[in-house]
Amino acid sequence: NVETIADGAFAGATLQSITFAEGTKPLTLGTLENTSSSSGVFYGTKITELNLGDRIAVLGAYAFYGQTSLTKVTMSENSQLTAIGQYAFYGTSKLTSVTLGPNLTTIHRMVFYNSKITSVQIPKSVTLIQYRAFYASTLAKVDFELGGTEPLTIEDQVFYGTQFTEITLPARLETAYKLTSWKKKYSFKNFADIFKSNSKLKDVNVEPGGKYFASIDGVVYEINSDGVADTLLFCPPAKTGELSIPKEVRKVENGAFYNTKLSTIRFEEYEEGDANYGSPLLELGNTTLIHDEQYP
Q1: How far apart are the C-alpha atoms of 70 and 8, rounded to whole Å?
Q2: Nearest by Cα to 140 from 121, 115, 119, 167
Q3: Dist. CA 89–CA 82, nearest whole Å
Q4: 223 bridge partner residues
Q5: Percentage of residues of the chain with pLDDT beyond 70
Q6: Among 22, 74, 93, 113, which residue carries the largest CB count within 10 Å?
Q7: pLDDT by residue (tens digit) across 107-139?
Q8: What is the C-alpha separation between 191 and 205, in angstroms, rounded?
Q9: d(CA 288, CA 282)
């Protein structure tokens, strides 16, 4: 009949395992509002494997902050968990395996920061992944479950320092960049910041049918109100060889080719006789091509 386990309830305990009894009432483990790492519900415990059963609804902030024994986290096929609080698995230096549940909607900021997970499947129920959620983890593979109808927001630096080489983003992606100021002179759409410091990334694909974003040859474009992919947002830094940019593109965003390894970039042109032929329709951002470690 327990419905709530308070923040800090097991903090500092030498607990090595825990089992949650089945029931019909949702169970909350800590709160999303907690702001103290030492008040994480399982802070400092010795738990090695965590099975979050069907009735767990929320895993609170700092739940396993800095815990060095946890190796595996599993959410059941019928998991009712909707949110993982900020810093929940921050610095879990032995955590290598995570299975997320089908009703998860929010992965709060810094959740898996500096964990050792190597792969993750993000269910189509997720609508928000906050700042640096997977920062500096050892992620080599990220799979978004495709399909779904609820809009998805991915905040900046979510996959900072990860090491995967390709990723496919769902068509329901709605927000995936913030407006960034460069040297207080220019404001631009900083899509690249999501994957900052991932030097191995070669291809970013977008599931067909998206309203806001599309991909061509592993390069990400923004779609305008007429359904045309007219702004080149991001070319992955490890992409090599030659890239042709469609003639419909009207802008190449600042930082789009940051640290590029491409040998050739070609801009397609309208054929002579077309109404657009020879017209100055293309804008190259102020810092489109750059190799500068001071660049944000």
Answers
A1: 17
A2: 119
A3: 16
A4: 229
A5: 95
A6: 113
A7: 999 999 999 999 999 999 999 999 999 998 889
A8: 13
A9: 13
